[in-house]
Amino acid sequence: MIKTLAAQVKQYKLPSLLTPFFMALEVVVDILLPKTMGLLIDRGIQAGSLHDILRYGAYMLLLALLGLIFGILAGKYAAQASSGFACNVRDAMYTNIQKFSFSNIDKFSTAGLITRLTTDVTNLQNAYQMVIRMCFRAPLMLIFSLVMAFSISARLSMVFVAALLILVVLLGFIISKAMKYFNEVFEKYDDLNASIQENVSAIRVVKAFVREDHENEKFKAAAGGIYKMFVRAESVVANNGPVMMLAVYSCMLSLSWLAARMITAGSLTTGELTTLFSYVMSILMSLMMLSMIFVMLTLAAASARRVVEVLNEKPDLVSPENALTTVADGSVDFEHVYFSYPKMKKYTGKKQRADKADPSETPAADRQDSSAEFVLTDVHLHVHPGETIGIIGGTGSAKSSLVNLISRLYDVSQGCVKVGGRDVREYDLDTLRNEVAVVLQKNVLFSGTILENLRWGDENASFEDCVRVCKLACADEFIEQFPDKYETYIEQGGTNVSGGQKQRLCIARALLKKPKILVLDDSTSAVDTATDARIRKAFREEIPDTTKFIIAQRISSIQDADRIIVLEDGVIDGFDTHENLLQNNAIYREVYESQTKGGGDFDQKGGTL
What we know:
This protein has 609 residues and is α/β, with parallel strands linked by helices. Helices cover 60% and strands 10% of the residues. It has helices at 2-6, 13-45, 50-99, 102-107, 110-152, 154-201, 203-208, 212-237, 240-265, 270-312, 399-404, 429-435, 450-454, 463-472, 476-479, 499-511, 529-542, 578-584, 586-596; strands at 332-339, 376-383, 388-393, 414-419, 422-423, 436-439, 448-449, 489-490, 517-521, 547-551, 563-568, 571-576. α5 (110-152) packs antiparallel against α10 (270-312). The radius of gyration is 35 Å and the shape is elongated. The chain starts with a helix and ends in a 13-residue tail after the last helix. The model is unreliable at 344-372 and 599-609 (pLDDT under 50).
């Protein structure tokens, strides 16, 4: 864990080294100041020597000035090092998250990732700054102060040693109690962020159903959990102060009692006693500082584990060595494909390599015994380049799972999926996904203008190319009605456009990639049937060589397809033309009749699978 985090210091190594260097110099100055003050009292004030008063006074002024300079430089470099370290950690985490496959993302909640990128990294930043500053200052101050105290009076310094032993035991007990609460607090942070994210993203639904009070109660519960945990932890840590003050005053009283006799006997001077008082404060404050460092490091350790989990997470899907960088055509073949999501897998055994020569040859010991646990079961079909394939099935029939395998958003459990005649696991991921444009079921637009959103498909696309694909997706007609047309600003998530408009913009964005395969995952559900028909017509006429997969609930959206897949519980129940399915497939015929005669859809009574 430490090695992983230390690697993120990178270009901030010099400030990280300069900080403890200047901290050490500041400690030396702080140690010399009490000694100089003692000399000022003994040789200047008590001796009545104006020369020594001025000389030692000048020394103290110079030392104070040097201490100020060293402290400023240490603070400056510590800020640079800690802020840079946090920046590198966030960048490394975010970069790694971008490489995650869907299965990797499934392991972490969105709220959990946000907490790790914000609160956890901030804790690490504070801890790193404390490590390179206080973790050097406190031990050095403690050791040097003890050395100086023993050089003045070994007998009186034993008071410090006794106080230190007692404090170590008491502070160790306090820290161990606080650690338990700090380790639990971040789960509460995840709950809080989840509540905030869900509420803000669905604020329109909350208001539509007048659920503000319910959401407030959820948030209060999440915030209250953090409050209670921190109160418990801070209540324990708060004992540091009283314990430390008890030790300080006890040491001062003991020193005063013992030193009085020594001064009377002439074995100790007033200046030396004053110096010892300064050192006792330095020793005990250093110890208290160390205790707080342990508390902070305990808090940071919990954050560090969560951050390192993200940094060390390896993408499940990677490009193989000597990966293919061209896709021959838009043909798609499913060869006896079985698929289950990672969290649903029951089989054990050696993990299948992504670049295995023959991916369909999965050892029998690695296979699930029960096909019911697979999302897709023995899918075997062949699609020619340029074909339009409709996909229909009830909710949960694995329509989206089927098309997600084409662009290798997930890997198959058994069998193989081929694009352009080659297994998708043989391709470079970027190459494959650039040739397979997917309009997912949940359409997402980003903050920016319409043009900026469209150019996610091709960042170098000309304005004319953007207009062309918008006409194909029937989006140009409503864009031209906006005052700013293609420069119209889209709010985060596309909240200022309708569902149908958002779908058409997402389709246009996918078309701008000029893909060999286009997947529309229920992406015209929010447009009217007339517009849906115009989009399909444009596809047939303008991109005839692109293989198209259209998932839909309305048979009218796919009945003109070359062939239609009927899915039932992850199994292909039919794969034929509209006319043949009406004659030979009872499920398809029942759905068709329910939609044309009763007005129902696939999931309603009479049309369910």
